[in-house]
Amino acid sequence: MMEQKAEKTLEAELKLIPGLKVKIDEPLARYTSMKIGGPADYFLEMEGRAALTQALQLLDRCRIAFCILGKGSNVLVSDLGVRGAVLRLGGEFKQIEWREKEGEVLV
């Protein structure tokens, strides 16, 4: 019972993050070129760095494992799915910008 309450709280907090789409138990077959793959506990699509930063902070605080899914090529996902969160980057992540600042590189 406590676990379900924590999951609902996490879901509610994720949905408050601007620029973040949250899907629960989302079949990953929809996002892979082979059209296979079971559900991700949390499927998060983000449009920008602010949403990514907030989502990662929340997942870390709640100790939820995550992975990043690109375009779904060259990946096989178990029919059992993925425990934790699968992140998909969109929006401002669709282009690459190279900036150097004080010894740091942002790509």
Strand content: 25-35%
Main sheet: which strands, in order across?
1-2-4-3
* Residues in helix, %: 25-40%
Low-confidence stretches: none
Total E-strand runs: 6
Query: Roughly what is the average pLDDT, rounded to an integer?
Result: 88
CATH topology category name: Uridine Diphospho-n-acetylenolpyruvylglucosamine Reductase, domain 2
Question: Cα-atom Rg, whole angstroms?
Answer: 15 Å
The end-to-end span amounts to 43 Å
Q: What is the domain tally?
A: 1
Shape: globular
Q: How would you classify the helix and strand content by structural class?
A: alpha/beta
CATH class, named Alpha Beta
Helix count? Answer: 2
| The CATH superfamily title | Uridine Diphospho-n-acetylenolpyruvylglucosamine Reductase, domain 2
**Main sheet overview:** 4 strands, mixed
Order of helices and strands: HEEHEEEE
Give me the CATH architecture, please. Answer: 2-Layer Sandwich
